[in-house]
Design a protein that fits this description.
The termini are far apart. By secondary structure, the protein is α+β, with helices and mostly antiparallel strands. The longest helix has 14 residues. It has 3 helices and 3 strands; from the N terminus they run E-E-H-H-E-H. It has a 3-stranded antiparallel sheet with strand order 2-1-3, with helices on both faces. Helix 1 crosses helix 2.
């Protein structure tokens, strides 16, 4: 089994990223390290903005799925959050 998770803005609860991870806490820490390292991406730039406010993105586990089904689940959640107006 693996997990579909989201990173959300700590002030607005807007979901800004949806991903998949076997170990969610390790992947979350990896996102923070990537952002702090100066990596250039929309996700990392957003995480740096949050960190600069002395905050951290909210980690939300959305679903536990089989390794065979994770791609469909990830696509589903990305589409749902986009429909709700999340970036």
């Amino acid at each position: 089994m693996t997990f579909i998770y989201a990173l959300a803005d700590p002030e607005t609860d807007e979901v800004r990223y949806v991903g998949k991870a076997d170990c969610v806490k390790e992947r979350y820490a990896s996102h923070l390290r990537e952002a702090k390292s100066g990596k250039q991406s929309h996700k990392c730039n957003w995480i740096r903005q949050v960190i600069n406010k002395d905050q951290k993105p909210k980690l939300i586990v959305l679903e536990e799925v089989s390794h065979e089904d994770w791609k469909n689940a990830e696509i589903y959640y990305i589409e749902q959050f986009k429909k709700l107006g999340h970036r």
